[in-house]
User: Which sequence fits this backbone?
């Protein structure tokens, strides 16, 4: 007969080992008690990895926001948004005051307007700096400083116009 | 143990009833120990693998859906545990890669007289190289299909067939004197 048939006939003889039932059960019980601890450990590891992923995600998102989407200071945080808005309002108010005055040709005015344009460039460069290197206090300070300077320049423009206006009025009086 | 009693025990095991686990263990321990012993090759590894397999089975008993008998499901866990441990010890992997082609002419007809003592046959099986012994045990004694053995060992079906026929050839060589003595 072939080996397979031989083994089939003698099948029972292959199961001749006697296990130590109680000893084996003791080991199984111990292993089963140990497994949940391992599971807890595994769960803790998974939780730690998840926390790490979330933290990295938040950091990357923050960096991306800082570096790729900044078009004004208001996008960095609420406090800066409020300060920038305040400055913008003041600049608009002053500019409206300046434009409400009658036009007078003045070389000083041309220079001051040119300075305002330079401040616009400085502001854009500041934003570019934040875009490239991320949020930093110095860049923010420089950006806010451009608003201060704008205000001073517009005040000077107003003063120059008023001075010109007064001068024109005086001349008109003398002409009469 | 009737099927109904077994199903009730399994249900209680799913709820974590340790008495039911012990009852179920007692009804399968002998058969499973012998499977573990045949694959592990010694008492110490057989005990260790069996304990690990039972612990895994009880902890994962919810994954037993009743598609096969509980005995088959449990036996598969025992077999997998033994193979995992053997693989960790890298005791038989090199034996598998040696032969990749099976020549039909090598499959000489190997017959055994029923009077040949089983003790001698068992000794000859135990003396087989590890890889051949595992495949022979899984196929001839545990009666798994080549497709199942291939899946368990992570080898191609043809490689398993080669190993099986090789093991038969080696057994024939070892038992020759007993075969011809009749």
Assistant:
């Amino acid at each position: 007969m072939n080996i397979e048939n031989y083994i089939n006939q003698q099948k029972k003889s292959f199961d001749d080992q006697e296990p130590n039932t109680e000893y084996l059960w003791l080991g199984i019980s111990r292993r089963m008690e140990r497994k949940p601890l391992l599971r807890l450990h595994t769960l803790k590891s998974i939780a730690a990895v998840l926390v790490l992923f979330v933290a990295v995600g938040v950091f990357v998102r923050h960096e991306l926001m800082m570096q790729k989407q900044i078009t004004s200071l208001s996008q960095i945080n609420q406090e800066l948004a409020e300060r920038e808005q305040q400055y913008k309002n003041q600049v608009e108010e002053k500019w409206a005051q300046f434009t409400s005055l009658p036009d007078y040709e003045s070389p000083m005015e041309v220079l001051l307007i040119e300075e305002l344009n330079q401040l616009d460039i400085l502001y854009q460069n500041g934003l570019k700096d934040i875009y490239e290197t991320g949020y930093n206090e110095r860049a923010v300070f420089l950006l806010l400083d451009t608003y201060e300077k704008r205000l001073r320049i517009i005040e000077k423009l107003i003063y120059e116009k008023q001075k010109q206006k007064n001068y024109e009025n005086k001349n008109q009086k003398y002409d009469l | 143990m009737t099927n109904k009693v077994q199903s009730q025990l399994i249900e209680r095991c799913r709820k974590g009833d340790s008495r039911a686990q012990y009852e179920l263990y007692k009804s399968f321990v002998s058969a499973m120990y012998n499977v573990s012993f045949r694959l592990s090759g010694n008492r110490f590894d057989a005990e260790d693998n069996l304990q690990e397999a039972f612990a895994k089975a009880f902890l994962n008993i919810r994954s037993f859906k009743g598609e096969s008998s509980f005995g088959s499901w449990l036996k598969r866990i025992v077999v997998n545990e033994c193979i995992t441990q053997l693989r960790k010890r890298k005791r038989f992997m090199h034996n598998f890669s040696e032969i990749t082609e099976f020549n039909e002419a090598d499959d000489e007809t190997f017959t055994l007289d029923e009077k040949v003592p089983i003790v001698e046959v068992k000794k000859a099986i135990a003396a087989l190289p590890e890889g051949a012994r595992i495949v022979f045990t899984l196929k001839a004694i545990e009666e798994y299909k080549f497709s199942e053995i291939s899946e368990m060992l992570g080898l191609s079906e043809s490689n398993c067939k080669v190993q099986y026929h090789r093991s038969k050839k080696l057994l024939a060589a070892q038992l020759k004197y007993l075969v011809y003595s009749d």
Summary: Residues 21-68 of chain A form the longest helix (48 residues). The two ends of chain A are 143 Å apart (CA to CA).
